[in-house]
Automatic annotation (TrEMBL):
<dbReference type="GO" id="GO:0005737">
    <property type="term" value="C:cytoplasm"/>
</dbReference>
<keyword id="KW-0460">Magnesium</keyword>
<feature type="binding site">
    <location>
        <position position="259"/>
    </location>
    <ligand>
        <name>Mg(2+) 2</name>
    </ligand>
</feature>
<feature type="binding site">
    <location>
        <begin position="177"/>
        <end position="178"/>
    </location>
    <ligand>
        <name>ATP</name>
    </ligand>
</feature>
<dbReference type="GO" id="GO:0046872">
    <property type="term" value="F:metal ion binding"/>
</dbReference>
<feature type="domain" description="ATP-grasp">
    <location>
        <begin position="103"/>
        <end position="286"/>
    </location>
</feature>
<keyword id="KW-0464">Manganese</keyword>
<keyword id="KW-0436">Ligase</keyword>
<feature type="binding site">
    <location>
        <position position="247"/>
    </location>
    <ligand>
        <name>Mg(2+) 1</name>
    </ligand>
</feature>
<dbReference type="InterPro" id="IPR013815">
    <property type="entry name" value="ATP_grasp_subdomain_1"/>
</dbReference>
<dbReference type="InterPro" id="IPR023533">
    <property type="entry name" value="RimK"/>
</dbReference>
<feature type="binding site">
    <location>
        <position position="140"/>
    </location>
    <ligand>
        <name>ATP</name>
    </ligand>
</feature>
<dbReference type="Pfam" id="PF18030">
    <property type="entry name" value="Rimk_N"/>
</dbReference>
<dbReference type="GO" id="GO:0018169">
    <property type="term" value="F:ribosomal S6-glutamic acid ligase activity"/>
</dbReference>
<dbReference type="InterPro" id="IPR013651">
    <property type="entry name" value="ATP-grasp_RimK-type"/>
</dbReference>
<dbReference type="GO" id="GO:0009432">
    <property type="term" value="P:SOS response"/>
</dbReference>
<feature type="binding site">
    <location>
        <position position="259"/>
    </location>
    <ligand>
        <name>Mn(2+) 1</name>
    </ligand>
</feature>
Amino acid sequence: MRIAILSRRPSLYSTMRLKEAGKNRGHEMFIVDYLRCYMDITSRRPQVIYQGEPLKVDAIIPRIGASNTFYGTAVVRQFEMMGVFVANESQAISRSRDKLRSLQLLARDGVGLPVTGCAHSTKDIDGVISLAGGTPLVVKLIEGTQGVGVILAETKKAAQAVIEAFRGLDANILVQEYIKEAGGSDVRCFVVGGKVVASMKRQAAPGEFRSNLHRGGSAEKVKITPEERSTAVRAARTMGLNISGVDVLRSNHGAVVMEVNSSPGLEGIEKSTGVDVAAKIIEFIEKNAKAGLQRDKGKG
């Protein structure tokens, strides 16, 4: 098959590993900068054009950066219009990038979550703090990524000051209970095709409560419980993602989901677990894209 990886940076570990895994399984692999793609949206003959030539591929793996979600998902959507198999659909990617919408959908489907509040007016600060169980609590920018815009407020005055500052910048925020018993750690479950293929425990650096590896956290292989496995799979299914990284906290009231990532990195999970996650992704595409191609041939 001809498989395109939509990525802005060919040198990224995740991009290189996906290309390598695809080549090892006999596929033609291409890295495409989706911001350099342009689209012909003519009725009945949609095209994606890259470096002056129409892109003709059987499948794509979107690796869309958070700051480029609008145009990146538009390119993915154009491939969908062309009948190309996409590893993660455009709507699912957009859904996952909106933290508030994600949590609302997960809550509707009964997936375990930290107690979470959201308010628009600073006049309602006390109410939303109380709703989240008081302090300490976590204040999050809805648009933040990789731990940016996530602050632990240890007192009510600190929480009020942080919320007022964010709202003064017209930033949208969430307020969540602080899961102290997690001890600055979380579990990243990597879900591919409705199955957890690898999992790691991420531990925050000393003096830090955010466990993101980009913020100096460490990672190690971990055995997850049946509840954690079920929670991760349900969260991915709710978001409509075939490939995702589901971040779970171990709380006193069970596994709770912090975030569902539509472009999870491969480096930390592969190096800490020894699992060839890139190959798992290619295998998923083989099984599902080929099934689609066979159906299309049958129609002819």
